[in-house]
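@channel anyone free to eyeball this complex?
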Amino acid sequence: MRRYPRVVVVGAGFGGMQAAQSLAGARVEVLLIDRNNYHTFVPLLYQVATAQLEPGQIIFPIRNLVRRSPYRFQFLMAEVEEVNLAQKWLKADDIVIPYDYLVLATGSQTKYLGVSGASEYAFPLRTLEEAVTLRSHILSCFEQAAHTFDAEVRQRLLTFVIVGGGATGIEMAGALTELVKAAIAKDYPTINPQEIRLILVQSGDRLLTELPPKLGHYAYKRLWQVGVEIYLDARVSQVTEGAVHLEDGATLLAETVIWTAGLEAAVPETSDDLSTKAKGKLAVRSTLQTVDYPEVYAIGDMAYVEQNGKPLAGVAPEALQQGVAAAKNIVRQRKGKAPQPFSYFNKGRLAIIGCYSGVGKIGKFELTGFLGWFMWLGVHLVYLPGFRNRLFVLLSWLHSYLLSDRSSRRIIAASTLRQSGRFNETRSRSRSALLQSSAASGYGSERE
Amino acid sequence: MRRYPRVVVVGAGFGGMQAAQSLAGARVEVLLIDRNNYHTFVPLLYQVATAQLEPGQIIFPIRNLVRRSPYRFQFLMAEVEEVNLAQKWLKADDIVIPYDYLVLATGSQTKYLGVSGASEYAFPLRTLEEAVTLRSHILSCFEQAAHTFDAEVRQRLLTFVIVGGGATGIEMAGALTELVKAAIAKDYPTINPQEIRLILVQSGDRLLTELPPKLGHYAYKRLWQVGVEIYLDARVSQVTEGAVHLEDGATLLAETVIWTAGLEAAVPETSDDLSTKAKGKLAVRSTLQTVDYPEVYAIGDMAYVEQNGKPLAGVAPEALQQGVAAAKNIVRQRKGKAPQPFSYFNKGRLAIIGCYSGVGKIGKFELTGFLGWFMWLGVHLVYLPGFRNRLFVLLSWLHSYLLSDRSSRRIIAASTLRQSGRFNETRSRSRSALLQSSAASGYGSERE
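replying in thread with the prediction:
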């Protein structure tokens, strides 16, 4: 029986999912591998972390792709352990899988830039589990502060430091101010919103350095207006339990430190070293093939791709377009034609800074304010996979923006979270210490 | 300053939430304590476990009650460690809290009836975390079976045993058959639905022993028609890894054993023993006050309440009505009046057996089929707290019943689940063993 060549796609992020989908019609057998059984719509993670959306609303079950082409498309939920480039096979969960073509699309991971304590005490925000863990932690801080009367402990619980002034950092800062305004003020009558400190620490001299200065300045002004303290030209030297230390010697006491500052390519273990560039990203030809192996493609956040002499920014549309390009080039190779160079068509960039206010650059046109905000919502709704997700996210947005509320306020049990690394024993011990310290001034004295 | 007397309500299930809400208007200060910051709508848990609803759709943030009466209502997210009945205080997370009145509403917990191995290897279904864990486990079994070629291992992965033929057991059995029909058949082209075995083990001689025989017989017939194997008069003697052993010597090899068979009252630690009755439930007077302490009430699943000489069944409407009654009696006591006896007004019982088919008893009227199913949906939608939940659950039901699909198919990472007790190291080792055994006959041979 004649078999089609097998294309293995590793990673079901924007690049990998798109490559797999684009290959669906071709005369190849596709095997998509991911450690999760779902695709995560990363640009909305911060809205999960701030209780605006449910985790289930921003994911897409990968097996929905199987439904569309059940005979040529397979999915394997597994971790890729090893790739043998010379012999063209990879190993995932102890299964050895040979390939004819390989598309690497494993994305990036948080990089703590050598800051000691950051990986233990700061919260990253790159996966769905991390977003859910962060949400639970933020809400737990308010729960604890509500019955903590020790002023210092209480202030530490109510201080939130965001490290990084890029798009994720400012979106997170904006969303946190709204969480406070929308839900915290109503839920915790014993917490004065003035007690809550939101601090954004940025190493550069302005926010949003990847966008034109005007937009960074606008973001600064908007965040400042809603009460976010912004430290520019400030670098974190160390994170310890309950504190962030800056290089200039300042210490910020905070129970919550959110790390949005760095990333590096997440490359699976390979038999032979692949050439890399900045941030550990794989060097690729203009066709997205790796330099050394013409049957191996690297796309998305793990590939170093230049356009007009500058590296691409690492955003979703780039990965999506690369997924399409890699798929087309594989089909060309299969037909004996030469792969074509990839060229990124930049439709623009957008970021929102809380309710009714956004920034963006579309072509040469720079947007700020309501229009930027509205376009952001529209674009994300259109790109979010799955009709059901779109409907539910739209309804959640209507609910949260019109009623100024946050619905997804579930705290996952600490016993479950502890496992995911952030809620370690130390933290949970410190919690009961906090509660103990409040006992004296707490419920005891208020009787008829 | 004059203070209102403090009523502490422990547990935010149906009884506790209702008691707290009913006390909102009264001249008392209410403190509600729960280990979670949300109320769980338990009757829909099995729909979370079978990927039909999202966890966030069946919970209600307890602090929504704070919003309604911010000055007299407080909430504490904590575990109650000790209750000192003589001195009228309790301790939660090391905080000592005195009370004037106490409402105990801590519900029930799974009881494994002395069956060895059940607590380690069977999946309970009484909390939201358990429902999410079970969902992830069920879907993981299909993920593994999809690339397992060892016939015996594959059959074990595709066999699901439900222990208990009460309402939860039959609802779970019905929902699992639909999960298979709606999603599994489409998602896993390599799994033949005929391979999947669903087994219901019931110790009594018919299903739904708490309802009239006609309804139990109907449920049997319906489940049998959709392919569920039903073992009546069968008792589980032991659960081991991957197997259920029956008292008659039979062994059912199954990776998934769902335990819906027993429960006992979950009573917090008290200074002095409270009188108990069957299943460890607290003995109460007809007024719902505990026998020994007139200022302490016990309601819901943890209280032993009789009506016409028979104990109540332990369903949500009983707890809700008891919550109202306890609140009223506290107000009466406060005014120096005698508390009044509680009387349960039975509006009926309903259970569904998969799509378009339900059973119920309303007054003397016994319902089966479409009408029972439709009424069940309506009643649950009306009682589910929160407008947003109602809308989202309704949309999810429309989606799942009209399109015959299941949307909430996210598998939570095993590293997170392992913590919650079910996904232990053994299981995860056995998984990679399974994958290894499939490697030989797996992807290796299918090449052009």
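from a first look: Chain A touches chain B through 71 residues (CB under 8 Å).
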